[in-house]
Amino acid sequence: MTERPRPLPGLHDQVLDSLGKDICSGVRAPGSTLTLEELERTHGVSRSVARETVRVLESMQLVVSRRRVGIKVLDPDQWNLFEPRIIRWRMQSPQRPEQLAALVGLRLAVEPESARLAALNATPGQAAELVALAGRMWAAGEEGNLQAFLELDVQYHALMLECSGNPMFVQLQGLISEFLEGWHAGGLGPGHPHPVALQLHAEVATAVQRREPEAAFTTMRNLLTRSADEAS
Fold first, then answer.
1. Inter-residue contact 221 to 108 (CB < 8 Å)
2. What would the mean pLDDT of 103-126 be, rounded to a whole number?
3. Alpha-carbon gap, residue 228 to 232, rounded angstroms
4. Pairing relation of β-strands 33-34 and 63-66?
5. Mind listing the pLDDT tens digit for each residue in 81-113?
6. What pTM value is reported for the model?
7. Count H helices, E strands: the chain?
8. Residue 189 neighbours by CB under 8 Å, 6+ apart
């Protein structure tokens, strides 16, 4: 599996998280500017920490540094919306409904096809691991262990993308993981995994193991549609 972006340590991460949330929530509006001196003063950090924070924000296309202008917040249509940390910040902002709708649409476009490809391309070992993960999810759901269920759910969907054999799908693992974590953290859907959802996870994994691509596609779409309906 591809590694998800690791947060910067210590002060870097704190300042980055604070600024990222402010930008994604609109507290720092598009077109507004800030300076390194302001970051040093308001966050009590060194110039090197301020510079590194801005460098990371620039890599996400949230801001751009311009001589004599300062650090300018860019319009949302310029942001790298596939960046997992931007997804996390938007899920914690007033834009959460829009972010959820966009992610649900993306998942419906990608994950059923990923399941179909997994039924064609997964190795026997990968297919067996999917079935095992579905079984452990069922047990965690029945036991009411929501934290374990979330961790297994993230692993399950990440592995499904990997099993597709499509390298571009694989690179969506961090994005899907942020969505699932934000979904559960936001209390969306039922407080306890529904038995039908648990069954559908198991059925997709079984379809992959049995090399039944159309069944895998249809069942994954049913699973995602059900999840979206629960949050609406």
1. yes
2. 97
3. 6
4. unpaired
5. 999 999 999 988 898 889 888 999 999 999 999
6. 0.84
7. 11, 3
8. 183, 227, 230, 231
